[in-house]
Amino acid sequence: MSKLVECVPNFSEGRNVEIIESIVDEVRKVEGVKLLDYSSDKDHNRSVVTFLGVPDEVEKAAFNLIRRAAELIDMRKHRGAHPRMGATDVVPFIPIKDVTTEECVEISQRLGKKVGDELRIPVYLYEDAASCAERKNLANIRKGQYEGFFEKIKQPEWKPDFGPDEINVKSGATVIGARFPLVAYNINLGTDDVEVANAIARKIRYIGGGLRYVKAVGVKVTERNIVQVSMNLVNYEKTPIYAAQEMVKMEAKRYGVPVVGSEVIGLVPMKALIDCAEYYLQIENFNMSQVLESRISG
């Protein structure tokens, strides 16, 4: 297997195990694709799938997943803490081996057209595949969420890149694109006040004047009666995990709230964790070649 592309679809179901498994099965059925991971969150009511393979087969698996999610998920009934706009909310393609970003952009465009034409779902391209600067940021596209898109899509500047010019009532709209590997990282706070989490999220995210490569939102974790700052670190090399961790801890002190834990959603690059170890342990002159597993895999 020479060329390798990673795909990390997020779909709007995190509670019904039967539906989740049926959607993920669409990935398992495609030869040339390896299912690496999938996880669900009941409070977010959202699942994240990670798979890897040769470009053509990854593209095929992504379409099959989107089609199955459209069949099984009804956005009119969906409720969850995480922002969302469609049954399959976002589908990024990430170059892993012998694949360029430009090739991932081409995959995004082909898939977007197929989803728009065959499934009649409006599609927006984002990040490196974005058709204009305003659509590069996922949060900017998704603003208003499913409920707000019935009016938003009528605005000339929000005409979809592919598919119908009106919202798909059952399936919403989908965002597809190409991007750098991101880290989905959540920090749990020792309070049940979601306004505290929202205030911290506003302070640390780039759009609010915070860290350059951080997107953040406050979320209530009902099962544990706590809240969390839910983040996407869209470039962990330029804004590492430890930078986000330390800023959240600093802001939480203003409210007398402790950090009680954190979680990584889906897969995380080894370097992102090694960077944290190097920072917190104050290791001098460290090199990735000193990691045993990197020597074995190499």
Automatic annotation (TrEMBL):
Protein name per Swiss-Prot or TrEMBL: glutamate formimidoyltransferase
UniProt pathway: Amino-acid degradation; L-histidine degradation into L-glutamate; L-glutamate from N-formimidoyl-L-glutamate (transferase route): step 1/1
Keyword Transferase: yes
Keywords in alphabetical order: Cytoplasm, Folate-binding, Histidine metabolism, Transferase
Ranges of residues in domain Formiminotransferase N-terminal subdomain: 3-180
Domain of life: Bacteria
Pfam entry (one): FTCD
Coiled-coil intervals: none
Enzyme Commission number, as recorded: 2.1.2.5
Membrane spanning stretches: none
GO molecular function annotation: glutamate formimidoyltransferase activity
Localization annotation: Cytoplasm
InterPro entries per UniProt: Formiminotransferase_C, Formiminotransferase_C_sf, Formiminotransferase_cat, Formiminotransferase_N, Formiminotransferase_N_sf, FormiminoTrfase_cat_dom_sf, FTCD
Residue ranges occupied by any Formiminotransferase C-terminal subdomain domain in the UniProt entry: 181-295
